[in-house]
Amino acid sequence: xxxxxxQSGIARLQDMVAKADVVVPFTGAGISTECGIPDFRxxxxxxxxxxxxxxxxxxxxxxxxxxxWRRRFAMEEQFGDAKPGRGHLALAALYRAGKVPGVITQxxxxxxQASGIASQDVVELHGNTTYATCLECAKRYELLxxxxxxxxSGGRSPDCACGGYIKTATVxxxxxxxxxxxxxxxxxxxSCDLFISIxxxxxxxxxAGFPLSAKRNGARLVIVNRDxxxxxxxxxxxxxxxIGAVFAPFIAH
Length: 253
Ligand SMILES: [Zn+2]
Prior knowledge:
This protein is α/β, with parallel strands linked by helices. It has helices at residues 6-19, 46-49, 55-60, 62-79, 86-96, 111-114, 143-152, 179-191, 209-216, 243-247, and strands spanning 23-27, 103-105, 122-124, 127-134, 140-142, 166-170, 194-198, 220-224, 237-239. The protein binds zinc ion.
């Protein structure tokens, strides 16, 4: 059912949240656009203009690793200071109220953690771009550490002391999905009686399977997204409105 207008949609969503025992949000790029972070996959987005560096290419050449870090530091200048938006703050309020046990996200921007949700309760399907790890020994490196060495060497990506390559902690195209977050996302999906997909076009598999799995398990499904998705027909409520406007009333929950 598609909400007629913003106000009636919000009222219906508030009612569904109030009646639910366990609410699991699933978030995509749309929740972060009001924070100034572009949706890379959208029409006109960065990845329609510049081909992303695939995992195999990153492993294969020093030039690609250098280019990967060059792009990452350019991103930092654009939106390194991004703050959580209204959608993030609303979910954090529901988390504090005990309604939301954890958030599943396709985003890599760390904004759910910045809004006050504990790191262990943010299930990142595509990793996190706000720090780096060694691909061999998994040692964590801060971006500032990488940036200093990158700059000092004239734009060469540094390696770990163990000899491994250092890469942002994201899941690149061609890199396998992380097992632990996938399992946790599955468990959360099966535990909820209300699943809310927020700002995801639900086209990237296997992540897009979670709303379907929740619905099949008997949960009610709400989809909040600017554009139609292929799951709108099975959703109990669809809100094609601005995410910040939809969730603003939940911030003081
Ligand atoms: Zn290492």
